[in-house]
Amino acid sequence: MYEIVAKEALAPVTTRLLVRAPEIAAKARAGQFVILIVDEHGERIPLTLADWYPDEGLIDIIFQQVGKTTMHLATLGPGDALYALTGPLGRPTEVRNYGTVVCVGGGVGIAAIYPIARALRQAGNRVISIIGCRTRELMFWEERMAELSDEPFVCTDDGSYKRKALVTEPLAEVLERGGIDRVWAVGPAIMMKFCSLTAMRYGVPIVVSLNSIMVDGTGMCGACRVEVAGQTRFACVDGPEFDGSQVNWDLLIQRQRLYLDKERLALERFQQKEQCRCQATLGGATNAAR
Ligand code: NAD
Ligand code: FES
Asked: CATH assignment of 100-256, given 3.40.50.80, 2.40.100.10, 1.10.3720.10, 1.20.120.420?
């Protein structure tokens, strides 16, 4: 069991959990992820490591409450424990001194781009960061990103905070100026697709972190397969980072939608169960008060 030691609401639908996992904290590197199971009946879900603290034996995971498992995860807090946690998984980011790099984080992908940008900065790169969210209340870790950036850009789709733009707009401007050696982008697949097309237009290499569906995380089940440069690759062991110019984005997006109906059903059942549990608790409390 893996104890949750702290919980923070970063946005109305975005939660940060600090989890005791000394072995993972000791080995984690930028770009890697963990797979967790909330309880004994739960499914396995991959989450990118947002940060880790080897001295304290803790790891940071950040997630959006979008489906049954992440909703369930968000009901946990300090004192609770995760049923299972495996990691660090995946190949770490290839950190070198490339020169000037751009790190793009979209939505909850900001959590995943943060350790990558930090590692690239520590390796001597000049880091330009671009983070974007749909609206102001979804923004988080702006200060953390600014601290490690030589030039930070912040934008929202609706213009409710800082610049009104999708992340691809400042990305194109920065690339237009020239002198960029490599781009990293983490966020929704559609964002990574358009970041890749933008970088390709300027002939600049781009690395993306693919969030395909995962089950075992060890290269055996094939659930996470993606097509890169015309070949089938497994995001969990060959990635999660790949050359964005070579990814078959349409196939990835199509595969991400495969289980939407089942996910919706699982979420409805979970919400009904939670509602019954709350009503039973309230009923018990009312009876006790009588
Ligand atoms: P979102 O839909 O709110 O989009 C975030 C930002 O991406 C937007 O603000 C915008 O700037 C940009 N964007 C979106 N569509 C775009 C388009 N068509 N063109 C250009 N830019 C576009 O994101 P969200 O709801 O926070 O979802 C985050 C996604 O990131 C989830 O799908 C999650 O699975 C994924 N994620 C991936 C990883 C990974 O390692 N690959 C890690 C964490 C999260
Ligand atoms: Fe099973 Fe990658 S998750 S092969």
From this structure: 3.40.50.80
